[in-house]
Design brief:
Layout (H helix, E strand, L loop, with lengths): L12 H10 L9 H26 L11 H19 L16 H5 L9 E6 L2 E6 L12 H10 L15 H23 L4
Antiparallel strand pairs: 1-2
Helix pairs in contact: 1-6, 2-6
């Protein structure tokens, strides 16, 4: 005796097309909207990284201050404050920026296009951002990526100052919005195609 069955057929053409659009082809190419999405994600992350870098370099407590800088800054600012009180000029707080001598590490995080030592590689399923390549730092006999790694992870004598970190909530929401917009654009494009 045969069992009662039903044969349900689901047309998965749009899903197959969406999968094909989102993944890379054999020649390493992807749908233009997917590439645009990954480039936008790179821009959003590097913008966040530069904002964080500026705040951390100004001494917001994210990074350990440079050795001796805190005491020198306090003393120098006290002198400036006394001088300003005597002359009646406005007092402006000064600081020594952490990791901003040459702006090389900061420049590698340029939101519009990674500077020397910065990378943005679109891969199958994502985008790799951060420091890489073999560009040499102008003041040190090592690559910019190696210098970034030394500061990011720290050494026995250099404290850890993380540069590439998880994005903040605002940036995550912006990235999620960009992914949603890209998916919607691709779905709209695919829905106009039949077969």
């Amino acid at each position: 005796m045969s069992k009662p069955t039903v044969n349900v057929r689901i047309w998965t053409g749009p899903l197959a097309k969406l999968k094909k659009v989102l993944s890379f082809g054999a020649n390493g190419t992807a749908h233009p909207r997917t590439i645009k999405m990954y480039k936008r994600i790179g821009y959003l992350y590097r913008s966040f990284a530069q904002r964080r870098y500026v705040k951390a370099s100004r001494g917001d407590g994210t990074w350990v201050p440079l050795k001796g800088e805190r005491k020198r800054n306090i003393a120098a600012n006290q002198r400036r404050q006394r001088r300003a009180a005597k002359t009646g000029k406005p007092f402006e707080y000064k600081y020594s920026a952490i990791l901003r001598d040459t702006n090389t590490l900061f420049g590698a995080l340029n939101p519009f296009s990674p500077g020397p030592g910065g990378i943005e590689e679109i891969t199958n399923g994502g985008v790799e951002l951060g420091f890489g390549g073999d560009a040499i730092h102008k003041l040190a006999p090592l690559s910019i990526a190696d210098l970034a790694a030394i500061h990011h992870f720290g050494t026995k004598h250099i404290p850890e100052r993380p540069i590439i970190v998880d994005p903040d909530t605002q940036t995550i929401k912006q990235i999620q919005r960009e992914v949603h917009l890209a998916q919607q654009d691709i779905i709209d494009e695919l829905s106009t195609l039949r077969k």
